[in-house]
């Protein structure tokens, strides 16, 4: 057992007695930092043994002062996180332990406040922590929201995992976090990055930059559907939404992502995003069906007596929209179920993955094309081997 140097023990106890807001330990430089209202205080350590064992002794002292037990930290964290019972009044103490895992536990808590987020960010600036905190509406609307969003925006060029890129873009595009010029600059970069495009689809499906024109006949459709819209008919609302300029822009961007997904996670998230966008058609949730099963389920549109009442009401007004409603129904059921038979245990990514998924991606794109005023562009077709 390594004993703390008397000077270090005294200075650490003084630091803890001063009621710091957070503690951070720099293991490489052997310095303990404390955050207070006046700024930072630090204790430079003087190891009496091997640094790793000395740091363990430092943490035990801190744990004893904060939790009343030198070995209390692991049990303290694991019990709460496992049971999902992280109490708000306990979060402050987590940030005093000098443990990265404790900071992560705090930022994951739904009870995290804007002030505690500031302290946690001081204790551990990390992209994953920023993403976790921006999932919390209280942090997004607070002072820290913009700070975290700016960090993730600046860190995006250095992010290597496409799923994390998409998550960062989705989170920083929440209202009020970025200036409009920053959003437009990010949109320009997204034109070359499918993961960024996915983030835009998830965050701003109805307010994408560079809006296109509404589909021909949009005003007439709106006039025809007014009675159903007033009744809250979900099919009528989605029909009008898809026919609008924002809806048509959404479809074109969706086709771009589906034609060039870099990883399995991105393609799965994209399918989940489409299903969530059309979830009003399937209140029961993800049907988890194969592509063949989805197409078979769409045969209800050939039998009026089997149609959902809201779909039947739309067809009574506009019987020419049967193919469009059918396409919406199919797309509303997308999920991992359509990928599973083609991927199985495969870890393929990039072009190999796209070749494996070609039997699914091409017919999905055909359904999107059915909803779109413009045919899919030549680039989208060539990526999947579809000649114009």
Largest sheet: 3 strands, antiparallel
> Strand pairing plus helix content: what structural class?
mainly alpha
Tally the structural domains: 3
What is the overall shape?
elongated
Compute the separation of the termini in Å.
Answer: 74 Å
Rg over C-alpha atoms, rounded to the nearest angstrom:
27 Å
Uncertain regions: pLDDT < 50 for 5+ in a row?
none
Number of H/I helices: 22
The amount of helix comes to 55-70%
Mean pLDDT: 90
Notable features of this structure?
3 strands; single chain; mainly alpha; 388 residues; three-stranded antiparallel β-sheet
How is this structure best described in words?
- There is one protein chain.
- With 388 residues, the chain is mostly helical.
- The protein folds into three domains: 1-116, no CATH class; 125-204, no CATH class; 213-383, no CATH class.
- The chain is built from 22 helices and three strands.
- It is elongated and about 85 Å long.
- The model has no long low-confidence stretch (mean pLDDT 90).
